[in-house]
Amino acid sequence: MIGGLGMPELIIILVIILIIFGAGKLPEIGAGLGKGIKNFKTATKNPELKKEDSEPEKIEKP
Questions:
Q1: Alpha carbons 34 and 39: distance in angstroms, whole number
Q2: What is the spatial distance between Cα 40 and Cα 51, in angstroms, rounded to a whole number?
Q3: Contacts of 5 (CB under 8 A, 6+ apart)
Q4: Rounded CA separation 56/23 (Å)
Q5: pLDDT at 23 (0 to 100)
Q6: Residue-level pLDDT at 2
Q7: Please, are residues 49 and 43 in contact by the beta-carbon 8 Å criterion?
Q8: pLDDT of 12-59, one tens digit each?
Q9: Which of 24, 25, 36, 49 has the fewest CB atoms nearer than 10 Å to its CB?
Q10: Treating both helix axes as pointing N-terminal to C-terminal, what angle do 26-45 and 47-54 enclose, rounded to 10 degrees?
Q11: Partners of residue 54 on adjacent β-strands
Q12: Mapped to the 3 state alphabet, what secondary structure does the chain carry?
């Protein structure tokens, strides 16, 4: 059981997704989700990326 969802609920959700997107788009959707999760994990594990993003850009005045 995942987060209060049982097997029947997961099957219904998968069938609805299959109807909406079609069988041809499912591999593309899966690949996109996989890349997004991978990028998210990389960004959260790399402290240099978080440091650069959290600091505002310094602009020198002439």
A1: 9
A2: 15
A3: 13
A4: 44
A5: 83
A6: 56
A7: yes
A8: 988 898 888 888 888 888 899 899 999 999 888 876 655 555 555 666
A9: 24
A10: 80
A11: none
A12: CECCECHHHHHHHHHHHHHHHCCCCHHHHHHHHHHHHHHHHHHHHCHHHHHHHHCCCCCCCC
The 10 Å CB-count burial string (b at 16+, else e) for 50-59 is eeeeeeeeee
Report in angstroms the alpha-carbon separations of 23 from 34, 38, 42, 44. 18, 24, 30, 32
Q: Would the pLDDT of 61 be above 80?
A: no
Does pTM surpass 0.70? no
Q: Which of 3, 31, 28, 52 lies closest to 39, judged by CA?
A: 31
CA proximity to 18, closest of 33, 29, 7: 29
Q: Which amino acid is at 36?
A: G
* Average pLDDT of the residues in 4-18: 87
